[in-house]
Design a protein that fits this description.
Layout (H helix, E strand, L loop, with lengths): L2 E9 L9 E6 L2 E3 L6 E4 L4 E4 L1 E6 L4 H9 L2 E6 L5 H8 L5 E4 L26 H14 L4 E4 L10 H13 L4 E4 L3 H10 L3 E3 L9 H10 L2 E3 L2 H6 L10 H11 L3 E2 L19 H12 L4 H7 L2 H6 L16 E4 L13 E6 L2 E2 L4
Parallel strand pairs: 1-4, 1-5, 6-7, 7-8, 9-10, 10-11, 11-12, 12-13
Antiparallel strand pairs: 1-2, 2-3, 5-14, 14-15, 15-16
Organism: Amycolatopsis halotolerans
Pfam family, one: Amidohydro_1
Protein name: Amidohydrolase family protein
Length: 352
């Protein structure tokens, strides 16, 4: 793979944009020596770390190309099965891929009606939760996904969810818990799970749950794009999903950008891969996050939170996952859509 020197690029460093400087792509990583490199004059354009979408659902290799075309160089999948599909997607590229494998669900919730959901995903006891985690470890899952539902809504019982989180932690894995109602949020937060994904579209997250998340160092992945698209699915839904994120931010809870991109039959709405992350940025801005906070929520934030220590920043030795855009996204967040070039592990990808 040829060496490339990007000259006169303003680099996002997690706080703002640098003065124009040179960034060297040396094979799949970022280097320091521009000698012998093919030169590209960025002419003052902005260079961002490749985006990380912290909640996607992937079923086909083409979706990884869709992610990359919009600057999403890593997709964190939250329900992919069977194991053979996960294995195939890990090497499909161009975007990188991490997965929870199948989710732990209850017998009567919405997820149990998704076509192809394995029967082994249904978890109703603490013992079954431990077996579920052991199966994910054996399959090589990167983290564990569970579905929290308010009592009576068909999800795993509280003791099973707690066992799921505890068993995953004992085996060195984080847990992501789905929660889309205030009651489900209370249950998810109480487990101490590292991540809670979605926010309620009807009703507010209780103040004590918001405070508990902050105290426990838990992280929210609100997927506002999905919550907005799913409003017709929830009778009586309003704009509470944006207000809930505003409350989490005000309390200092870490927030990551994720979309719930999917083409899954049975989901409340289909969300396009890649392009949807830029709409997620707009909704996070409506919730009060600054452009710098939003850019961090899609780069260094998820990289650190999910233990992806080789990406999320632009510095020598890290993966050359890069997005070159026109304009200044710190001043105008819509500039993230003006993509000039994307590199995935040093490979310049076609946006056709």
């Amino acid at each position: 793979m040829a060496k490339t020197a990007l000259r006169n690029a303003r680099v996002f460093d997690g706080r703002g944009l640098s003065e124009p400087r040179t960034v060297v792509i040396d094979g799949p990583v970022l280097g320091t020596d521009p000698a012998g490199a093919r030169e590209i004059d960025a002419a003052g354009a902005t260079l961002l770390p490749g985006f990380i979408d912290a909640h996607v659902h992937l079923t086909e290799p083409e979706q990884l190309a869709d992610l990359a075309a919009w600057g999403v160089t890593t997709g964190l999948d939250m329900a992919c099965f069977p194991a053979s599909r996960v294995t195939a997607l890990r090497s499909a590229g161009p975007a990188d891929f991490r997965s929870a494998g199948p989710p732990a669900i209850g017998p009567d919730g919405m997820h149990a009606r998704i076509p192809g959901m394995p029967e082994s995903a249904i978890v109703t006891t603490a013992e079954a939760a431990v077996r579920f985690v052991e199966d994910r470890v054996a399959e090589g899952s990167d983290y564990v996904k569970g579905v929290a539902e308010a009592p009576g809504d068909g999800g795993p019982p509280a003791e099973a969810l707690q066992a799921l989180v505890d068993a995953a932690r004992e085996r060195g894995l984080n847990t992501v818990l789905h929660a889309a109602t205030p009651g489900a949020y209370h249950l998810a937060v109480a487990t101490g799970a590292r991540f809670v994904t979605h926010v309620p579209v009807i009703g507010r997250i209780a103040d004590e749950d918001v405070a508990a998340m902050k105290a426990a160092g838990q992280t929210a992945v609100p997927t506002l794009t999905m919550m907005e698209a799913a409003l017709p699915y929830f009778a009586g839904a309003t704009g509470d999903f944006v207000a809930n994120v505003a409350a989490l931010r005000a309390a200092g809870v870490e927030i990551l950008a994720g979309t719930d991109a999917n083409v899954q039959p049975g989901a409340p709405a289909e969300i396009p891969h890649g392009a949807s992350l830029h709409h997620e940025f707009e909704l996070l801005a409506e919730a009060g996050l600054s452009p710098v906070e939003i850019l961090r929520a899609a780069t260094i934030g998820p990289a650190r939170a999910f233990g992806l220590t080789d990406r999320g920043e632009i510095r020598p030795g890290l993966r050359a996952d890069l997005v070159l855009i026109e304009g200044d996204p710190v001043a105008d967040l819509s500039a993230t859509r003006a993509i000039r070039t994307v590199w995935c592990a040093g490979r310049e990808i076609s946006r056709a």
